[in-house]
């Protein structure tokens, strides 16, 4: 009996390792095929040029905005201070963190002349786009949760006004593409709101916030249905038991129903939030430089579509995988607590 069991375990282990080898063979075959195809079209891979789109060392020039003569050049622990005596008789100081001075005392300078330069590390366009994607997604998720929670509770309310308004909102948003909703928020609502603000002398709302609003309302409709299904999955006896203990409907929902429903809705919420991060790539059409638009701009200037689109996909994968792991961790904590 033991020999038969050990033989079966060896066969299972052998089969497992065989399929692991098959997996890696498939992966390497796909990568090799892609590389072979690029050789056929004479494409040159330039992965070494990708890091500069995350961080780059930029040379910054300090220019004078007055005409006059150099009165003094002082070196400090932080760099250099150049004092310009302008033609109007005023003295203007220019400070920069470097000792690379291209002038001498007494030299004549004109407006726009370079006084010196220094190098500084700057955030690249891909990193800027990644940060903006994170910022937009995080804000939209927060507003989407509150909007979806309110709409989900209204969806199961006995109040006909709340219920019908919630149904109307959910069906309208879920029944139209997100791209169309972004256009409506930016070109229709955005134009109306900013025109009215301009008439009253109020500063206009940037396109970023109309993009956030479109993502939040779109996500809120799906979160509302997730919340509704989660609440209705809890047995009615839970509500009846809590009401029999003297709780109001609000207390019963807050203390009894929602904590149990929240554990059940975490997996679908994770999927919705992951979709939101990917859907944020549509905001590039309203001049928001998120990750996809930033990648598109870099591809246009560098002519490196293969490397940069692969990097873009990997960055989205990192974001969505990290969010998925976080929500799984929260789910486990709530189950065991």
From TrEMBL:
GO molecular function: transmembrane transporter activity
Domain ABC transmembrane type-1: 130-327
Protein name per Swiss-Prot or TrEMBL: Putative glutamine transport system permease protein GlnP
Native source organism of the sequence: Desulfocicer vacuolatum DSM 3385
Gene3D superfamilies for this protein: MetI-like
Function, as annotated: Part of the binding-protein-dependent transport system for glutamine; probably responsible for the translocation of the substrate across the membrane.
PANTHER family: GLUTAMINE TRANSPORT SYSTEM PERMEASE PROTEIN GLNP (PTHR30614:SF20), MEMBRANE COMPONENT OF AMINO ACID ABC TRANSPORTER (PTHR30614)
Membrane topology: Multi-pass membrane protein
Primary location class: membrane
Gene Ontology BP annotations: amino acid transport
Source species, domain of life: Bacteria
InterPro entries: AA_ABC_transptr_permease_3TM (IPR010065), ArtM/GltK/GlnP/TcyL/YhdX-like (IPR043429), MetI-like (IPR000515), MetI-like_sf (IPR035906)
Subcellular location: Cell inner membrane; Cell membrane
Keywords, ordered alphabetically: Amino-acid transport, Cell membrane, Membrane, Transmembrane, Transmembrane helix, Transport
Cellular component GO terms held in the UniProt record: ATP-binding cassette (ABC) transporter complex
NCBIfam families registered for this protein in UniProt: HEQRo_perm_3TM
Signal peptide stretch: none
Family (UniProt): Belongs to the binding-protein-dependent transport system permease family. HisMQ subfamily.
TM helices/strands, residue ranges: 16-36, 136-157, 178-202, 208-227, 308-330
């Amino acid at each position: 009996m033991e020999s038969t069991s050990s033989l079966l375990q060896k066969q299972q282990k052998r089969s497992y390792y065989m399929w692991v080898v098959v997996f890696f063979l498939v992966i390497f075959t796909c990568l090799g095929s892609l590389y072979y195809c690029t050789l056929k079209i004479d494409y040159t891979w330039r992965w070494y040029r990708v890091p500069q789109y995350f961080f780059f060392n930029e040379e910054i020039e300090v220019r004078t905005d007055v005409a006059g003569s150099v009165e003094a050049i002082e070196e400090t622990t932080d760099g250099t201070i150049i004092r310009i005596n302008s033609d109007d008789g005023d003295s203007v100081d220019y400070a920069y963190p470097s000792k690379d001075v291209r002038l001498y005392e007494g030299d004549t300078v004109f407006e726009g002349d370079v006084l010196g330069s220094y190098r500084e590390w700057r955030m690249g366009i891909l990193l800027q786009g990644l940060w903006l994607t994170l910022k937009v997604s995080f804000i939209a998720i927060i507003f989407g949760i509150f909007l979806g929670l309110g709409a989900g509770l209204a969806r199961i309310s006995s109040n006909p006004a709340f219920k019908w308004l919630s149904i109307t909102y959910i069906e309208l948003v879920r029944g139209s593409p997100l791209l169309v909703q972004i256009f409506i928020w930016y070109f229709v609502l955005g134009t109306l709101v900013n025109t009215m603000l301009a008439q009253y002398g109020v500063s206009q709302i940037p396109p970023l916030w109309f993009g956030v609003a479109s993502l939040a309302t779109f996500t809120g409709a799906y979160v509302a249905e997730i919340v509704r299904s989660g609440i209705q999955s809890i047995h009615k006896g839970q509500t009846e038991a809590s009401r029999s203990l003297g709780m109001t409907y609000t207390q019963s929902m807050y203390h009894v129903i929602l904590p149990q429903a929240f554990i059940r809705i975490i997996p679908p919420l994770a999927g919705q939030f992951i979709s939101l991060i990917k859907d944020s790539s549509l905001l590039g059409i309203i001049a928001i430089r998120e990750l996809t638009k930033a990648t598109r701009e870099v591809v246009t200037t560098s002519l490196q579509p293969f490397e940069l689109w692969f990097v873009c996909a990997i960055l989205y994968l990192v974001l969505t995988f990290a969010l998925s792991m976080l929500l799984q961790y929260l789910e486990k904590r709530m189950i065991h607590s």
